[in-house]
Amino acid sequence: MELLRDTYVVINLDRMKENMKLIRDYVGKDVAIAAVVKGNGYGHGALDIAETIMENGGDYLAVATLTEALELRKRFKEYGIFIMGYTPDEYLRHSVDNDFIQCIFSKRQAEILAELGSESNKRPIVHIKYDTGFNRLGYRDCQESIDEIIEITKMENLDVQGIFSHFALAGDPANRKQFNDFMNAVEKIEETGFKFRYKHICDSISAIDYPEFNLDMIRPGAIIYGLKSFRKNDIDIKQVLTFKTKVYHVKEIKKGEGVSYNFKWKAERDSVIATLPVGYSDGYPRNMTEEGMVTLRGERAPIVGVACMDQCMIDVTDIPGIQVGDEVVLYGDGSNNTLSIEEASKLGKTNKNELIARITRRTPRVYIKDDRVYKILNYLTEEI
Ligand SMILES: *Cc1c(COP(=O)(O)O)cnc(C)c1O
Description:
Blueprint: E1 8-12, H1 13-27, E2 32-36, H2 38-42, H3 46-54, E3 60-63, H4 66-75, E4 81-83, H5 92-97, E5 101-104, H6 107-119, E6 125-129, H7 143-153, E7 159-164, H8 172-190, E8 198-202, H9 204-209, E9 217-218, E10 241-246, E11 249-253, E12 258-259, E13 265-266, E14 271-276, H10 288-291, E15 293-296, E16 299-304, E17 312-315, E18 327-331, H11 341-347, H12 352-357, E19 365-369, E20 372-377
Parallel strand pairs: 1-19, 2-3, 2-9, 3-4, 4-5, 5-6, 6-7, 7-8, 8-9
Antiparallel strand pairs: 1-10, 10-18, 11-14, 12-13, 14-17, 15-16, 15-18, 16-17, 19-20
Pyridoxal-5'-phosphate binds at residues 36, 38, 84, 166, 203-205, 219-222, 353.
GO molecular function: alanine racemase activity; pyridoxal phosphate binding
InterPro entries: Ala_racemase, Ala_racemase/Decarboxylase_C, Ala_racemase_C, Ala_racemase_N, Ala_racemase_pyridoxalP-BS, PLP-binding_barrel
Active site: 38 (proton acceptor), 261 (proton acceptor)
């Protein structure tokens, strides 16, 4: 497939493979890895990273929505796919039809799934979401909830495979309290003799910083993509994604001329301005307007004026010789003076996960495997 655009992300599957191996080595062979590929695999393209993940230590793929799970199922018939979010009652039949692992936190949904199971001779697999303080999804932590979960574990047409919670990551004491509350609830449920195959609570940060909380399964996202936010421990993961574009236009402007909407930026000297074909419709934050920077020829150049939907301008007055076609790195891994995703996310006033999950499908993906271009994916022109 042709690239057709000069704004694209490079996904280094060799690095992702190494990251997966490091995670597997770190947690040991007895902890299942439910690799989180929601948000189109944090912008990396869920479908095209799935095999690298599953062939290098991944046990399950985890997503947020039914639609993300359905997208994966179209290509991967055998993989275990876990929907961590809520699926509305009327769509639960798709979850059963496609053998997804479904998150639930009500007896109502347990009954619907059990009924769907008996109709289709299946035992739908569920993981119960248990809220230990995040206050997003899940059973509230109380005896009533525990009693109801015990009833669910007794339903015949339901495979209650797991129970899980999620850290708010509000510091050491808060994390320990959440973990203890979770384990107390699990213990009470398991006192009936029922045993969960998977109990899990750790995302990326907690899996690395609190290995003692890993239990039977972890749900890492960020670390697969080489993003480090953990603080106490370390593993040598590497960033997988690089966001690139090229100079499309160069011009000299006079002192006092404005650039972009509202002339929010005005040249304080005669300047050389380059135009880049990337904007917020590609997922490049409009918030880069004031503090954004990019790297070309190993030097940093500031974004000037308002970053637009499809284009933005940079001041290259101090980098001599810039020409149309010069390669620009928007976010790299920090080497060669590039902005790491961490650094770029600060300039864009967001966090690392958002910065990459927001890269849209207008931006083609280039996959590197065994040090070579393995695949070019242009979502908009892909054969369907
Ligand atoms: C997104 C998500 C994760 C993964 O989070 P990271 O910080 O990227 O590791 C884990 N569990 C749940 C429930 C999530 O929604």
